């Protein structure tokens, strides 16, 4: 028997369930359970999704810390690419017929845009990289939603499992089941949006429900990213009087209200600056170019910063190709930022400039949130996704006794006290899927409770003394207890019981 190194106690419980059931079910279900076991021990699968050209690949590069996904102007991501940890850097193209072949990186270390085969034959690309971040996170870049190229949308759905979950699993398997399960069903989602969230972006979010192992994306496993914050016109945003970031934050809060409870948060980001500063693209000679620009006379500098065209074409002592490169790396806002830093400290080093640009990108806030929402709860998220896969295996059983056995085992697991976190995640998922509705203040309370592992954050009492938190946890536990029994619908009551228990457990630990 293979040993599976799972994330933590909840995944371990789901893994045990699979191990125990495997010998007691037919061949087909046993294979399915084996796949679930493999998935439980793999790193958290994070898909980056969103409309075309919203900056998904740029964000992927920033997360990995290497400019490996093509983002050049006019370059669309056409196939799903999975970036996972490997001991040597290598690329593998997986074809729909299950065959694979390896592919060299470009001279610059990126994935070539030409895969050397007709795209219709490609399932996806596996990129194995030595970057340490990938040890506990697999990052999946996807073609843009709403892309004019219908084929790439279909391919994304096929790879992420959308089509299969929609009930087409009986068709001819295009991938062998093992590799299919290995790529199907991301467990967490970064949803990249830009200034205008349109109604169909919400549709896009639900279209990706099935990408997350058949469970809807929600506050448990989805974060919104308001990218290209540098292109926001502060004047166009209500509450944006205080400058770019004030405007970006106001806009993000607004979009969060529209998208909730589908996502945990919407955080503003300048993906381009994040990529440039994280992926080692910003060199000493770029810093040198910036210093030379800073030294230009005030009126030349002001004119050049009006537009991208003026910036590259205006006659000045700084070579035009060096300027064009800066524009590509930083865009006008980033250049302005850098020049201000140089004004403030004319001796600033290239390294310092780079970290100032990183600071200006908003990436560190996003990473903190990502750690809290995803990595901090990877055990629960993986376990919940694993259990959903077990449910899918059960669904596809033809033998009713076998199905019954799987269902009974799952129910049994959910009633164990240590499965409380799973039940809380399930409750949040019910809320985001609209299976249960709650008045908005209660909804906010549940989202807050499930949004973090930190007690003071969960209670909405940052910095409060322990005694007050203890008292409050008990009070809310009592309240939800009575809400569960009085006047709630059955679905509400199910959620209320879980919330009651969550408060009770916190109270017990605080005490
Ligand atoms: N100004 C600015 N440009 C950005 C930002 N993020 C990405 N871009 C640019 O937007 C363009 C598209 O970025 P990509 O990362 O390729 O977008 P994508 O979503 O992967 O695009 P598809 O794969 O075609 O759907 C590139 O030229 C990026 O340099 C940002 O924060 N600010
Ligand atoms: Mg892309």
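^ Assign residues to that structure.
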């Amino acid at each position: 028997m293979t040993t599976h190194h799972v994330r933590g106690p909840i995944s371990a419980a789901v893994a045990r369930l699979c191990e125990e059931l495997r010998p007691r079910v037919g061949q087909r279900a046993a294979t399915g359970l084996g796949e679930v076991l493999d998935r439980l021990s793999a790193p958290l699968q994070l898909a980056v999704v969103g409309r075309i050209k919203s900056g998904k690949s740029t964000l992927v590069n920033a997360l990995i810390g290497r400019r490996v996904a093509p983002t050049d102007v006019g370059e669309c991501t056409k196939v799903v690419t999975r970036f996972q940890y490997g001991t040597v850097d290598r690329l593998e193209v997986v074809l729909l017929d299950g065959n694979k072949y390896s592919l060299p990186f470009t001279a610059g270390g990126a994935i070539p845009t030409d895969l050397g085969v007709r795209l219709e034959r490609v399932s996806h690309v596996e990129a194995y990289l030595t970057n340490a971040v990938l040890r506990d996170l697999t990052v999946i870049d996807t073609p843009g939603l709403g892309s004019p190229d219908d084929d790439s949308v279909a391919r994304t759905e096929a790879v992420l499992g959308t089509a299969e979950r929609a009930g087409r699993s009986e068709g001819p398997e295009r991938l062998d089941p093992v590799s299919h399960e290995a790529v199907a069903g991301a467990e967490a989602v970064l949803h990249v949006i830009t200034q205008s969230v349109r109604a169909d972006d919400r549709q896009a979010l639900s279209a990706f429900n099935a990408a997350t192992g058949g469970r809807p994306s929600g506050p448990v496993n989805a974060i919104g990213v308001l990218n290209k914050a540098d292109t926001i016109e502060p004047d166009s945003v209500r509450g944006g009087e205080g400058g770019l970031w004030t405007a970006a934050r106001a806009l993000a809060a607004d979009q969060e209200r529209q998208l909730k409870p589908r996502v945990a948060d919407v955080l503003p980001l300048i993906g381009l600056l994040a990529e440039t500063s994280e992926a080692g693209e910003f060199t000493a000679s770029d810093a040198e170019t910036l210093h030379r620009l800073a030294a230009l006379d005030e009126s030349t500098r002001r004119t050049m910063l009006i537009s991208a065209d003026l910036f590259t074409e205006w006659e000045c002592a700084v070579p035009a190709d060096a300027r064009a490169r800066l524009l590509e790396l930083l865009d006008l806002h980033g250049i302005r930022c850098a020049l201000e830093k140089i004004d403030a400290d004319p001796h600033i080093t290239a390294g310092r400039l780079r970290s100032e640009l990183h600071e200006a990108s908003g990436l560190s806030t996003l990473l903190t949130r990502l750690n809290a929402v995803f990595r901090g709860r990877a055990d629960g998220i993986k376990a919940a996704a694993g259990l959903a896969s077990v449910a899918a295996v059960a669904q596809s059983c033809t033998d009713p006794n076998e199905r019954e056995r799987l269902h009974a085992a799952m129910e049994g697991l959910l009633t164990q006290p240590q499965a409380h976190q799973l039940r809380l995640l399930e409750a949040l998922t019910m809320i985001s899927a609209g299976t249960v509705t709650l008045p908005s203040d209660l909804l906010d309370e549940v989202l807050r409770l499930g949004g973090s592992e930190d007690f003071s954050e969960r209670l909405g009492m940052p910095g409060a003394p322990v005694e007050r938190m203890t008292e409050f946890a008990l009070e809310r536990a009592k309240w939800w207890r009575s809400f569960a029994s009085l006047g709630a619908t059955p679905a509400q009551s199910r959620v209320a019981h879980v919330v009651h228990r969550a408060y009770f457990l916190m109270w017990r630990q605080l005490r």
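Confidence is low (pLDDT under 50) at residues 162-183.
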